[in-house]
Amino acid sequence: MKSKTPLKLFSFMLLWFTLVPQPAYAYLDLGTGSYIFQMAIGMFVGALFAVKMFWSTIKESIVGIFSKRNKG
Q1: What pLDDT, in 10s, does the model give residues 31-47?
Q2: How much of the chain is in helix, strand and coil states, percent to nearest 5?
Q3: Contact between 70 and 63 (Cβ < 8 Å)
Q4: What is the DSSP track for 32-65?
Q5: The pLDDT of residue 64 is above 90
Q6: Which of 50, 53, 55 minimizes the C-alpha distance to 63?
Q7: Helices 55-71 and 30-53, axial angle in degrees (round to 10)
């Protein structure tokens, strides 16, 4: 039973910090939004490149799954 206690504590803290906001005295300039946008585009392009590199493996796996269902 003690193993669930950290999970309950983490859940409570997550809810607390989400539902009870504190003021953040910070400044985000225009460059921050541009940097976040560039990171999002970079992650998207990286994911597309990974799919391109492993497309044959992905395709064989999907074909293998569906061909097993049709045979059985």
Answers
A1: 988 999 999 999 999 99
A2: 80, 0, 20
A3: no
A4: HHHHHHHHHHHHHHHHHHHHHHTHHHHHHHHHHH
A5: no
A6: 55
A7: 60
